[in-house]
Amino acid sequence: MLLPKKVKYRKMMKGRIRGKAVRKISLSFGEFGLKSLDSCWVTSKQIEASRRAIMHFLKRGGKLWIRIFPDKPITTKGAEVPMGGGKGAVDHYVAAVKKGMILFELTGITEEQAKEALRLASHKLPVRTLFIKG
Q: What is the pLDDT of residue 88?
């Protein structure tokens, strides 16, 4: 009889974002998209600011898909905390974005409207982006 292996749980480390994206590299839902040209961490607040900028410009027109999700917790320790005492509390969440990843997709609007909406959203993000159409 085989017994299951003991699973060791590790703390989530910072890690590095290396290489190009192999998933989420083509438009799947919409006609227009916003593609990243760099790799970086995008926080949940930056994603929400971009979403608000797009929806404010569209005014109930079109449909938006957000292709990234902030699933990586980032921890910090308080100021003037001595060494030791374990890992700090979760401060915020980020999405690890690789080069070539699709961030947002739009459909149901004209190309000019999509360009302007995604341009406004790109100003809220810490990564260089490119407008693409399918």
A: 87
